[in-house]
């Protein structure tokens, strides 16, 4: 028997021993965890040309989010903005902080209420945020 045949027979024999030692059956692992339900995301936008839109910089209607939803603010304009709440009635959302063009920031809203909102960089940009 040449050395190559010897190694192949030894490996085959070792494989048979390992299968026999393990019983030839696999033991099922723990069950997969139940995935958490995905939070619904409601998108809110800083519109293109928002500085010139004034009271409609966030749309011509109030931004409405439902309690428990993720509110995602996205800057679709070509300049930096932020969105800041005028009142502390919605504690999960106080400000987005600076949002570069294309940037976004998310908040999960768990408190119902209404507040006026504005951009601190462009105070003429105003709107209303409602969580129901």
What can you tell me about this protein's structure?
- The protein has helices at about 5-20, 50-55; strands at about 40-45, 65, 70-75, 85, 105-110, 115-120, 125-130.
- With about 130 residues, the chain is of the alpha/beta class.
- The chain has a domain at about 40-130: Cupredoxins -  blue copper proteins (Immunoglobulin-like).
- The protein starts with a helix and ends with a strand.
- Mean pLDDT is about 85; it is low at about 15-20.
Compact overview of the structure:
The chain is built from two helices and seven strands; from the N terminus they run αβαββββββ. With 132 residues, the chain is an alpha/beta fold.
Tell me, what's the shape?
elongated
**Poorly predicted residue ranges:** 14-21
**Using only CA atoms, what is the Rg?**
29 Å
* Class based on secondary structure composition and strand pairing: alpha/beta
How many helices?
A: 2
Report the top-level CATH class of the domain at 41-131. Answer: Mainly Beta
CATH architecture of the domain at 41-131: Sandwich
The name CATH uses for the topology of the domain at 41-131 is: Immunoglobulin-like
Task: Please write the string of helix (H) and strand (E) elements.
Answer: HEHEEEEEE
- Helix percentage: 10-25%
Average pLDDT for all residues: 83
Strand order of the largest sheet: 2-7-6-4
Largest sheet: 4 strands, mixed
Strand content: 25-35%
How would you name the CATH homologous superfamily of the domain at 41-131?
Cupredoxins -  blue copper proteins
Distance between the termini: 82 Å
Total count of strands: 7
């Amino acid at each position: 028997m040449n050395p190559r045949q010897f190694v192949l027979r030894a490996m085959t024999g070792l494989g048979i021993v390992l299968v026999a030692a393990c019983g030839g059956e696999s033991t099922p692992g723990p069950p997969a965890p139940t995935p958490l339900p995905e939070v619904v995301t409601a998108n809110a936008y800083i519109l293109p040309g928002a500085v010139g839109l004034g009271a409609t910089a966030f749309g011509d209607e109030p931004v409405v989010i439902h309690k428990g939803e993720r509110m995602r603010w996205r800057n679709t304009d070509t300049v930096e903005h932020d969105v800041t709440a005028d009142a502390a009635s919605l504690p999960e959302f106080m400000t987005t902080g600076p949002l570069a063009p294309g940037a976004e920031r998310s908040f999960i809203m768990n408190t119902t209420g209404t507040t006026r909102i504005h951009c601190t960089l462009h105070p003429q940009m105003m709107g209303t945020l409602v969580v129901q």
